[in-house]
C-alpha cells in the first residue's frame, strides 16, 4: 500500500476525531480517557476485534484509564489509507463508549 503524502495525512486528520500526526514514529495517534481501567480494557478489546476483521492493527499504549492508539503501516514504513480507515473505525467505537 502506498504511503500518504504529508498533505494527504493532514487532510485525512481533518475527517477524524482527535487524531494527530506523530513524527517520531511515522504514525498518527489518538489518546482517549476512559472512566477507569476496565472500561479502557473493554474499549481495547473492541478495537482488537475490529483490527482482526480489518487485518490492520494499531499499536496500543494502556496507562490506567488513558489509552493511546498509534496507527501506522509497518510494512510501508508510514501512514497509508489503511491507517486512516482503521482510525475511523476506532473513532466509531470510541464514540459509542467514551466519557470524556
Ligand atoms: C500479513 C498481515 O496482513 C500483515 O502482517 C499486516 C497485519 N497488520 C498490520 N497492521 C499494521 N498496522 N501494519 C502492518 O503493516 C500490518 N501488517
Automatic annotation (TrEMBL):
Keywords: Lyase. One of its GO terms (molecular function) is 4-alpha-hydroxytetrahydrobiopterin dehydratase activity. Its EC number is 4.2.1.96. Signal peptide: none annotated. It catalyses: (4aS,6R)-4a-hydroxy-L-erythro-5,6,7,8-tetrahydrobiopterin = (6R)-L-erythro-6,7-dihydrobiopterin + H2O. It is an enzyme of class 4 (lyase). One of its GO terms (biological process) is tetrahydrobiopterin biosynthetic process. Belongs to the pterin-4-alpha-carbinolamine dehydratase family. This is Putative pterin-4-alpha-carbinolamine dehydratase. It comes from Streptomonospora alba.
